[in-house]
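Continuing the batch. This is chain 6 of the set; chains 1 through 5 are on the previous pages. Same settings as before, nothing changed between runs. Recording input and output for traceability.
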Amino acid sequence: MTQCPKYPYRLEDKKTKILCFKKTSTAGSESEGSSNLVAVGFNQNACRLACTKMIVIDELSFRFVEQEGFKLFCSVACPRFVIPSLITIARDIMKLYYDEKKQLREYLVKSSQRVSSTTDTWTSIQNICYMVLTSHFIDCEWKMQKRVLNFVQIANHKGETIGKAIEACLKDWGIDKVFTVTVDNAASNALAISHIKKRLQS
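Output for chain 6:
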């Protein structure tokens, strides 16, 4: 950074805050989507978390943090921000995933409500089988929520295999009350649903 010619050795007060507009996020309030003027100070951990969320939300490569353009932007916009490495970002994303999973799992267990699920399976161009399980539920504010619970590789598209994968996922999330399970019209899904019904009723 360029130093002041009159006070070249003046120390920077790290507690200094700046005024900026911050969007409100109170659900259901009249001010939703508006902005409030707040005093914000620099926080390395908060910036690092925001950087991690940016990578996830925008589906960016982990190497994005090592691109010269991003480094240039940070050097101008926020010189004090220590840019994390590719390995650090990968580790932070896994931590973020487990933290978010823990919060959602605790909510589902605490609310003890029935959830509706949708599942889909497909085979990649590398001939690898995958399955995704998504939950749908209404939160305490009567808003519809949708969360991807699991995205896993499976051995094949047989009904028993799919049923066991769904069962393992529901157990992992502590879900024992299922309202509906929606699948496509593949013949193997009939056996998968039959497997889930037996496990939930037992």
